[in-house]
Amino acid sequence: MTDKAVSALTSLTGANTATGDLLYIVDISEAAAADRSKKITAEELQNYVKKFPATIGVGGATPAASGAGISFPATASASSDANTLDDYEEGDCSSSIAIAGTTSAGSATYSSKSARYVKIGAMVTVYGYLSWSGHTGTGFMEISGLPFASNAQVALHPTAAIGYPHNISLTAGNVVTAFGAPGASTISLYQYPTGGGANSAVPMDASGDIMFSITYSI
Description:
mainly beta, two-stranded antiparallel sheet, disordered N terminus, about 5% helix
């Protein structure tokens, strides 16, 4: 058989990894320089790598190339360990997010409709902008179509920050906020007096503009 130097191996799975191909390594534990050059077959190296543990600790790691990173499966493999990050996901949810009425959801003509989400473990943040006109919904106003239903525990209500509530029917001096019911994929809009006091639901409007950021657990 013909020994092959490292530069002659195209890859561990390429054309030059047939049985007998050798990879040169240096064993620095040998005292004599002449004894430090060792040879290992690609197959032996692959078998050795397979023996590494399935889980690794990451500390101060740097991606080897642009676009590299830690990948998670499309469907999370949930861990019971509170210190284990078992899921990450981000995406566009513009198609599902919408303004809806609580009595009848209705539909609208949107001049702008955009939303994105980031899911880290059990926490989800959804942010976006909606501008609509000609809405047929009735009742009070809500944002529907969150990418995940919220946690069903009563103490974990989704909350939202609402910015730029333009052309929305509000009582003078009130500010807009929002929260949702546990286990739901909607957020209801409410208004509060600036100096404190009882809240009231925001009436459904045929047109309006809002920016929003919603954070909740699932």
